[in-house]
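We examine the record.
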Amino acid sequence: MIKKNAGKLLHSLKSAGFGASDISDVLITHAHRDHIGGILTENDNLVFPNARFYISRTELEFWFAQQPNFPNSRRPEFGHGSVSLVKQILGAITHRLEIFDAGDELFSCIKTQAAPGHTPGHIIFTVYSGKLSITHLVDLVHSTVLISNPVWGTQWDADFSFGIDTRKNILEQCHKQKSVVCASHLPWPGIGFIERADDQWQWTPKPYISPLLLTF
């Protein structure tokens, strides 16, 4: 659960003129603790009291199985060690959950896509408006190294080999479509393109200018 002064989301929302009570919808891409830990406070109260929470059917069913299993993980103890916490957090918002299937469209502007391997129900999504779009790869990659070397995977992947196959397929998809992409764990600003050089994918950040560096 969220600790005092943990993270910067609530501070960023406040600086943008929003409060936690203004948040109406939260998309859960997968149920690892660093992606759902901010749902509850230390006292088990909802951080976003007015929100509905969206999660894929496959992800929810996996974690609420009697004994979630991680036989194809390189470090299954990591997965087993998270089960009770995940059930606690998701259990606290059961009455607010909205279940979707990968491939469903949400809010008429978000396309969801299955990206299994990291977790069974891990999804990535594309936010679009007209011809403009950005695809969030979430935890498909945890580093630019996994873009150029997708066979390495991570110790947090529930199914290591399946995660590699998924990573390769989606990276190629993004490359061919020239998609603007972002991901949770890539270095700032975390927005860019999947390109190829010497028969290898590579991460190309989208050029940006930090307003903090501007002088007048």
In short: The radius of gyration is 18 Å. The mean pLDDT is 93. The longest strand covers residues 123-129. The beta strands are 25-27, 52-56, 97-100, 105-106, 110-114, 123-129, 132-136, 181-182, 191-197, 200-205.
